[in-house]
Structures are given as structure tokens and as C-alpha cells.
Amino acid sequence: MPSIRAELILVLIAAIWGGTFVIIKLTLLDIPPFSFITIRFAIATILFYLIFRKKIKSPAKGELAGGIILGILLFMGFASQTFGLVYTTASKSALITGVNLVILPFAQYLIIKRKVGFENWVGIIVVLVGLFLLTQPTMDNINIGDAVTLICATSWAFYIIYLDIASKKYSLHIIVFIQFILVTSFSLIFALSFEKFSSVHFTEMSVLGILYTSVLATLIATFLGNKFQKETTPVRAGILFTFEQPSAVIFAMIFLKDVMGTFQLIGGLLMLLGILFSESFEYIRTVLKNSPE
Question: Cα angle vertex 151, ends 249, 206, to 5°?
């Protein structure tokens, strides 16, 4: 039986992540994407070590492999999402990130051989229609930010599946620490290769963005997500994480004055409906089947 407390915590994490789209969008005005991720995860890594150093030991072979896989997926997710936010809006980025729930059943099939259901195919068709209306791509004006953010959605889907496996087998503190170290290291390599130190500016907004994302959205949210996701199923966790999308859109409209046209609003709504239908159909069917006449 899934823990109600665990699922409420996952919803809280989703709300925290929803706030990052606006904050990161504003912070990127002062700090390039890979430099920002480097600073964000370096702070999270140092704080995590200071708090949990007594529980961090040399990883076993399985823990090291699990942490590396999760770290690579986490880096791909954060790097593509942050880089994408340079070119697209916070609200569109959030909605496109939500496509991970449609990809998730296919990731499950590839990793644990769970069959992709009819409802998943319906969901992906609806989401793709919504994505087309949301992004309104044209042959001469394709938004690179929207395209790169799809990489984030794919990475996050595989991350959820691997996390469900690893968190039940290995030490929570060790695999989280490995993830933080890898994301910091990869981001630093990209920052040194493609960005200039002179382009990093510490302003009130960028410092606020660093503190919010490194402490609240990375250190606390990632630790709690790794700790409590194992108390529910990957699909249910994915459904709970969809709260990130509407909260991000609301924040973006309030603080960034993001404006979405009629077709974009319809597209965003279709994406949410497709995601929820795809991931809740089986659960609702089971509940109805087991309910008393």
C-alpha cells in the first residue's frame, strides 16, 4: 500500500520544482547555463557531505554503477532543461518536461519489460497533438529550446525507472552523493569548455536563484525524492510529479507575465489530459474493478 505521507512529499517536491522554471529563467540572465548548474550542484554536494558525511562510505560495485547511471541521467535532464530555458519560455519548458510521463511506460518496457498499454498509446497521440499546438513549429522557425527540453523529458523518464530500482537495493546517501558529484563534474567540464567566467554575474536575483535551486530544489528535493519514491510505484510517482507543470505555468504567468495564445493553451491542456489519461487509466480501472457493487 503506497504511503500517503510519501506521496504528499512527492507532490511538495513537484511544487518546489515548479518554482524553479521561473527562478532559473531569471537567473540565466546573469549566469550561463552550465556555470549555473555547476554552482548549484557544487553547493548541494558540499552541504550534503557536511550533513551526511558519517553515512557516506566507499560504494560497493553495485552502488557505484547505480549512482553513475542515475548521475548521468540527472545531468542530462538538468543540462537540457536549463539550456533549453535560454531559448524557450518557463511555461512551455514545464509542459514539455511533463512529456516524461508519456515516455515513462516505454522506458519501463525497455528496462523491466512491462508491456506498453493501449492507454499509453492514446496518451502519446494526445500529447503529441498538444505539443504541436503548444510549440507551433514551422519549417523556418523551429525553437531549439523546445527541442532540447524533450531530451530532459526522456532523461527524467528513465531516471524515475532506474531510481525505483536503485533506491530499493542500495544506500540512499551513497547513490545521492555519487549523483551530485557527477552532475557537478560534468557541468564544470561543459562550463570550462563553452562558457566564459567573465559572463558570470552575481546579482541579488542570481544569488537567490542559486540558493533556491541548490538547497531547496536540489539538496532537499532530490534527497526526499530518492528516499520516498520507493514507497510508491514509478507510474504513481510520475502522476504525482505532474503537479510540477501547472504550478510552473501559474508561477510563469504571475512573475514572468508569460502569455500563451489560444492554441497554445489548448495544446497545454491536451498535454496534461493526455498525460493524466495515460498514467491513471490502469489505476482507475483497477479501483472500479475492485469496488463493491
Answer: 55
How large is the greatest C-alpha to C-alpha distance in the chain, in angstroms?
Answer: 69
Cβ burial of 202 (10 Å; 0-12, 13-18, 19+) is exposed
Which cell numbers in the block locate residue 28? 540565466
Inter-axis angle of helices 244-255 and 262-290, nearest 10:
150
- Distance from C-alpha of 206 to C-alpha of 209, rounded to nearest angstrom: 5
For the beta carbon of residue 173, count every other beta carbon within 10 angstroms: 20
Q: C-alpha 220: how far from its chain's center?
A: 14
Q: Is-contact 7 207, C-beta < 8 A? A: no
Spell out the residues 6+ positions from residue 17 whose beta carbon is closer than 8 angstroms to its own: 217, 221, 241, 244, 248
Q: Where are the domains of the chain?
A: 4-290
- Distance (Å) of CA 250 to CA 91, 134, 221, 228: 8, 16, 20, 26
Q: Which residues contact 220 (CB under 8 A, 6 or more apart)?
A: 16
Task: Specify the DSSP class assigned to residue 229.
Answer: G
CA–CA distance, 71 with 293 (Å, rounded to integer):
48
Per-residue pLDDT of the chain (293 residues; tens, 9 = 90+): 457 788 789 889 988 998 999 999 999 999 999 999 999 999 999 999 999 999 998 888 889 999 999 999 999 999 999 999 999 888 888 888 878 877 888 888 888 777 767 776 777 778 778 777 766 655 445 578 888 999 999 999 999 899 988 988 999 999 999 999 999 999 999 999 999 989 999 999 999 999 999 999 999 999 998 888 888 777 677 777 777 877 887 888 888 887 777 877 887 788 778 767 766 776 677 666 666 65
DSSP annotation of 88 reads S
**Which residue from 253, 51, 72, 89 is spatially nearest to 166, judged by alpha carbons?**
72
